[in-house]
C-alpha cells in the first residue's frame, strides 16, 4: 500500500506491506499535512498478527484523533491506549512550517534519519523498549531544518543498507521509494516506511 500526502511545504510517501503469509499487518502509520504542520506516526506492534495489529492500530488512531496536540502529549496518549494490549514501538514526527522546526520522539527500534542540503544528518537515538501502558520516560527533541531536507522513518522490517546515502544521492522521494522496492520484496517481517521532503 502506498499513500501520498503533500502541500506547498512538504511532500511525503508512505509504504506498507505485511509479513508474507499473514492477514494482519502488525505495523500501523498515520500521516497528515496541514497549512501549519506535518505530522506522522509509525508504530510496530510486538510480534505479528492480529494482536500486534491491535496495538499499533490503536496508536495510529489516537494520533489521528489528536494530531493538533504536541508530541510529548501524543506519546503519553499512545502509551495509555496500549494498556492491556501487547504493546508497540512508536515514533512521532511533527514538523512546524512557520518556524522551520521539527519535534521528534521515539521508543523502540523505529529508525528516523533526516538529511539537509548542507550535508548535515540528524539521527536521533530512541529510548530503548516499547510502549506498554506502564509509566514511561520519553526523549522528545526539537531541531531546526533547512528547506529541501529529506527524511525517512522505517520499521525493522526494512533491511536496506546505507539509508544515509539513499537520502543524499536521490533527488526525489519517488526515486528513494523506487530504490527501496527491491528490499521490500526480501522482507521476513511487517514493513513500513515514510519518506518525505520539506519544501
UniProtKB/TrEMBL annotation:
Record-linked SMART domains: PP2C_SIG
Stretches assigned to the PPM-type phosphatase domain: 9-198
Protein known as: SpoIIE family protein phosphatase
Annotated Pfam families: SpoIIE
Gene3D superfamilies per the UniProt record, alphabetical: PPM-type phosphatase domain (3.60.40.10)
Superkingdom of the source species: Bacteria
SUPFAM superfamilies: PP2C-like (SSF81606)
InterPro entries cross-referenced by the UniProt entry: PPM-type-like_dom_sf (IPR036457), PPM-type_phosphatase-like_dom (IPR001932), Ptase_RsbX (IPR039248)
Organism: Metabacillus arenae
PANTHER family: PHOSPHOSERINE PHOSPHATASE RSBX
Amino acid at each position: 500500500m502506498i499513500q501520498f500526502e503533500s502541500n506547498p511545504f512538504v511532500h511525503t510517501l508512505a509504504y506498507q506491506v505485511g509479513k508474507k503469509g499473514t492477514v494482519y499487518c502488525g505495523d500501523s502509520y498515520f500521516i497528515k499535512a496541514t497549512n501549519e504542520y506535518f505530522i506522522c506516526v509509525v508504530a510496530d506492534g510486538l510480534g505479528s498478527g492480529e494482536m500486534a495489529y491491535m496495538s499499533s492500530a490503536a496508536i495510529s488512531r489516537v494520533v489521528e484523533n489528536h494530531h493538533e496536540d504536541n508530541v510529548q502529549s501524543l506519546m503519553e496518549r499512545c502509551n495509555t491506549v496500549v494498556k492491556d494490549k501487547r504493546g508497540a514501538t512508536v515514533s512521532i514526527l511533527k514538523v512546524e512550517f512557520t518556524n522551520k522546526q521539527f519535534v521528534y520522539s521515539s521508543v523502540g527500534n523505529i529508525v528516523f534519519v533526516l538529511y539537509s542540503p548542507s550535508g548535515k544528518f540528524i539521527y536521533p537515538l530512541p529510548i530503548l523498549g516499547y510502549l506498554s501502558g506502564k509509566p514511561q520516560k520519553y526523549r522528545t527533541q526539537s531541531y531546526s531544518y533547512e528547506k529541501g531536507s529529506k527524511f525517512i522513518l522505517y520499521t525493522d522490517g526494512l533491511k536496506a543498507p546505507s539509508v544515509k546515502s539513499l537520502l543524499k544521492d536521490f533527488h526525489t522521494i519517488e526515486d528513494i521509494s523506487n530504490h527501496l522496492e527491491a528490499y521490500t520484496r526480501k522482507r521476513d517481517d511487517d514493513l513500513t516506511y515514510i519518506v518525505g521532503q520539506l519544501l
